[in-house]
Amino acid sequence: DGRLTFYPGNQTVDLPFINFMRRYGTVFLNAYTNSPICCPSRAAMWSGLFTHLTESWNNFKGLDPDYVTWMDLMEKYGYHTQKYGKLDYTSGHHSVSNRVEAWTRDVDFLLRQEGRPMVNLTGDRKHVRVMEADWRNTDKAVNWIKEEAINLTQPFALYLGLNLPHPYPSPYAGENFGSSTFLTSPYWLEKVTYEAIKIPKWSSLSEMHPVDYYSSYTKNCTGEFTKQEVRNIRAFYYAMCAETDAMLGEIISALRDTGLLKKTIVIFTADHGELAMEHRQFYKMSMYEGSSHVPLLVMGPGIKKQQQVPNVVSLVDIYPTMLDIARIPVPQNLSGYSLIPLLCGKAENEASPRGPRPSWVLSEFHGCNVNSSIYMLRTGKWKYIAYSDGHSVLPQLFDLTADPDELTNVAIKFPVIVRSLDKILRSVVNYPKVSSSVQEYNKRQFISWKQSLGQNYSNVIANLRWHQDWLKEPKKYENAIDKWL
Q1: 3-class state of residue 29 by DSSP
Q2: Does residue 59 come out as left (phi exceeding 0), alpha (psi in the -120 to 50 range) or beta?
Q3: Cα–Cα dist 320/33, whole Å
Q4: Is 39 among the residues known to form the active site?
Q5: How far is Cα 38 from Cα 292, in angstroms, rounded to an integer?
Q6: If you compute the radius of gyration of the chain from its CA atoms, what whole number of angstroms results?
Q7: Mean pLDDT of each 10-residue bin along the chain, 485 residues long
Q8: Kindly report the CA angle at 407 between 405 and 420, in degrees rounded to 5?
Q9: Taking a C-beta distance cutoff of 8 angstroms, is the pair 242, 189 a contact?
Q10: CA-to-CA separations, 431 to 45, 375, 393, 422, in angstroms, rounded
Q11: Most buried by CB count within 10 Å: which residue of 16, 138, 170, 417?
Q12: What DSSP designation does 414 have?
């Protein structure tokens, strides 16, 4: 959650290396993902293109493997490049459940797809390396800096992708489990100030926006939760962020120890946030701040120190920024704009040859746990969220200055603002048309998957992540799918 990287957003957990980057660099106060889920978001970051252009409709559909990323271009122009850890921006990954849930989101049924969110404390006060796979990748990156980078004659670009602070798998939920366990050790939990944790306000289930209700239900969050449960989920999430911060620290320390820190630009960001029980949801797949607002901090030579940038920016801006840093010509077809003018504290009129950076950012989501394509335009104090074809589902409008917790939809109160924001949104993306192509894509994919299973179809579909609900009335749900087809 990007709000944890600046004050007063974060008074709950100590993040010393985020603070270090803030002291010696620039923090963006309004950075957003272009799609709040792993693969589509990363596809936007690696390509510099909005999701409706990459057509990354869900976690299964990302970029083609041969797509030219900014790192490919840097390599072509003489950079030594190295990647470690989670990449997840090409097609073909994630579970079958994940795919089928996304494809069938227009079907007239409601099934729980996730395990109920819960916490799990492991190890003792000395247990530092909880997320072992991430630590192994961090060690590889550190060793690469100390053994390879230090001896290079050419410049380098190193990428480290961490899984944390993503929740962990929940095998207790049956054979097709999701990831709904917030896991940490006492070592990290002690870094969280419990008294400072805000318990989010929830609307009653009957007052929820219909798409939010679908999300909350499919994420298994519509049951009763005690305040203590919610506080624990949030505390464990913050502890997982503290462990992530320590991995960032290892990279910064390796650069400092090798004398490379003063001549290296360091960027820290994320593919999406975590709702951590805000709006009665965990995970992402939502345009609320907890899910769509991401961290973005940059430090290094030429980057203004102790600077807070209020402009709205998004992950598609990474591509042109990387090319700018490397002095590589920036392709003109990108959705993003270079952050270099903002990072160096220059006036916007010195900006790119493409003209000034727009005053809005776009995020969109077409995957599982929502029953409609969602489009978010963020500009000034407003967040406008449009759905589907623009009229079958009511839009949302939030005034983030007056209502930072996004509890009051003021779309009906400000029809003129809704119309003007909708007009901007339609000038960027013909969203009714995109929603319709996603619906067609979902149906095509589902039909070909169903055909590939032959006689096994009924058994396979019943035992996906929704098996606990499906198996109560399998015929009912199969019929709902037939009706949809």
Answers
A1: strand
A2: alpha
A3: 16
A4: no
A5: 12
A6: 22
A7: 86 95 97 96 97 93 92 97 90 84 95 94 97 98 97 97 94 77 98 96 96 97 97 98 98 98 98 98 97 98 97 98 96 96 78 81 96 97 97 97 97 98 98 98 97 96 94 97 97
A8: 95
A9: no
A10: 21, 8, 13, 10
A11: 138
A12: -
| From 38, 221, 241, 368, the catalytic residue | 38
Token couple for 269: 């960001």
Q: Which amino acid is at 410?
A: V
Neighbours of 189 (CB within 10 A): 20
Name the 3-class secondary structure at 247: helix
CB atoms within 10 A of CB 5: 27
Kindly report whether the peptide bond that precedes residue 165 is cis, defined as omega within 30 degrees of 0: yes
Q: Which residues pair with 360 in a beta bridge?
A: 379
Q: Are 15 and 5 in contact (CB under 8 A)?
A: yes
Is residue 94 within 8 A of residue 139, CB to CB? The reply is no
- Which two three-digit tokens encode residue 126? 């000395």
Tokens standing for 13? 């957990």
Q: CB of 40 within 8 A of CB of 54?
A: yes
Which of the 8 DSSP states describes residue 411? T
Strands 25-32 and 307-314: parallel
Q: How far apart are the first and last CA of the chain?
A: 38
Residue 352 tokens, joined: 């790119």
Residue listed under structure tokens 């015929």? 475
Instruction: Identify residue 369 by its one-letter amino acid code.
Output: N
As given in the structure block, the two tokens for residue 82 are: 């190295």
Could you tell me which of 353, 376, 356 has the C-alpha nearest to residue 366? 376
Quote the tokens at residue 78. 């003489």
Q: 152 vs 144, 147, 156, 295, 299, CA distance in Å? A: 11, 10, 8, 30, 21
Q: Fill in the amino acid letter for 260.
A: L
Longest Cα pair distance anywhere in the chain, in angstroms?
Answer: 66
